Amino acid sequence: MKPLTLEWLDKAEGDFFHAAAALKSRSRHVPDGVCFHSQQCVEKLLKARMVEAGLTPPRTHDLQDLLKLLLPHEPLWATWHDSLGALTYFAVHFRYPGATATRADARQALRLCRAIRREVRTGFGIRP
Known about the structure:
This protein is mainly α.
């Protein structure tokens, strides 16, 4: 595995840790952060796969855009299209004033993140 791929994977794990730990908190401020870190984890996982495929990850946070670039390498990931759209929405919509995520939103974001994380890590030969 390429050293840069490993760096992306390590960064993704940091976001996963923060999302999972935050969801256990009772603070009312937690759901927004869970949504954000869940999206960030998946973004970094996708960018890790791009690097491993020889692609240069673009500077975008839109997970569906990243998916389009990866489909020639991972065609089965097309089933993630809607989930990636939801994660992108959660990260952007709740990041600024005007909207606040609920605990249900946070649980859904982390559930999607866990599922995608499991598949990507398995593809890299890493224990989920």
